[in-house]
Design a protein that fits this description.
The structure is a homodimer of 200-residue chains.
Chain A lengths: L2 H15 L6 E5 L6 E3 H15 L9 H10 L4 H4 L7 H19 L4 H16 L3 H20 L3 H5 L4 H8 L2 H4 L1 H17 L8
Antiparallel strand pairs in A: 1-2
Helix pairs in contact in A: 2-3, 2-7, 3-6, 3-7, 6-7, 7-11, 9-11
């Protein structure tokens, strides 16, 4: 394939990817005025990754972490966002996301299609230090945004501390220090302020 | 400084950085329904960088490019966005951005404050292959978004092809192939469709 043909495929993917700016999450931005979208969320995770990777449990390949983060929500262009605390939606989500991954990554030149599909699979499987760390950041970010916006999405959705702990404790596998911080400086003070229900 | 003290400073910066989601640019998102903000723009540039770095003029350290891109608009939290075609606003912008950089990067632990301030300075000075490539992507992205949204912000602001060429031709220093593509597949067809005025 010529360089121009490669570039045309890459540009088509880049323009298609723009649509994640229209996928809105349950979380609000830190000041709480509106919901954040997947592009904003992905940027913020990438910023967290470059600043916080010293706290990962294992040494991580930061470039690989960033690539994973930058494309981890691309599948939601077709599959939509399933709220992490909505068990029914989450159970239906996986098949939709696989179908979306098949369509979207295959827009890229073959070598990149394979590389980015493999990175997306790796992120989802949470088996490697990079995937564990990237997932830890992906779990910490909503807690931080919720806490900064006075628990708006927690309160609106009736989320209690037990639910938050159950959904986020696997942060311990990727970044135990960030999980300890989250318990002490996000979940505990959120309970004291009445932003979350009783802790399990 | 203890690990916890470092993390607290990092988290403060990360929450402060969230504000770039409220800095809206003149460009619209690809489908043209609303203006894009700095967080969305930064995510999209980072995605372009990982997919397009093979087209850079020189071999680039991709991780460094990504770090630059992820923080390049942070200063607009204090300085606001100056439209690239507004010469008066641009000339006043530099001092505001320096002041913003002084405040914002110094929220980080000293080593990171120095690293990210240096990366921001490097991006602004456009002297290295990484800065040249990152700036090329930063110039290509608005053209791509404008073209995808039927030239909405070009038309609203009376931008012609000569102005677009003058503002973006330094892409040639970082990624000549991307500049050639932009001329042939964005600027030329945009003129044919009447989305831009006469080319110089």
């Amino acid at each position: 394939m010529s360089q121009l043909d490669r570039l045309k495929k890459q540009i088509d993917f880049i323009v298609e990817a723009d649509k994640i700016q229209n996928i809105f999450r349950m979380n609000y931005t830190a000041e709480g005025s509106r919901r954040e979208n997947d592009a904003e969320h992905s940027w913020h995770l990438a910023l967290m990754a470059i600043l916080l990777y010293e706290h990962a449990n294992a040494r991580v390949d930061l470039l690989k972490v960033l690539k994973m983060i930058l494309i981890h929500d691309i599948v939601e262009i077709d599959a939509g966002d399933a709220y992490v605390y909505n068990e029914k939606a989450k159970s239906l989500q996986h098949d939709k996301e696989i179908k979306a991954a098949d369509r979207l990554f295959n827009m890229l030149p073959d070598d990149q299609a394979q590389e980015y599909r493999a990175l997306w699979d790796e992120f989802e499987e949470m088996g490697t230090p990079e995937a564990k760390f990237a997932n830890s950041i992906d779990r910490m970010h909503p807690m931080l945004m919720n806490y900064s916006s006075n628990g708006r999405s927690w309160i609106e959705n009736g989320i209690d501390a037990g639910m938050v702990t159950a959904k986020n404790k696997h942060m311990n596998d990727g970044a135990a220090f960030l999980w300890e911080y989250s318990k002490e400086f996000i979940i505990e003070p959120a309970m004291e302020k009445g932003l979350l229900g009783v802790k399990e």
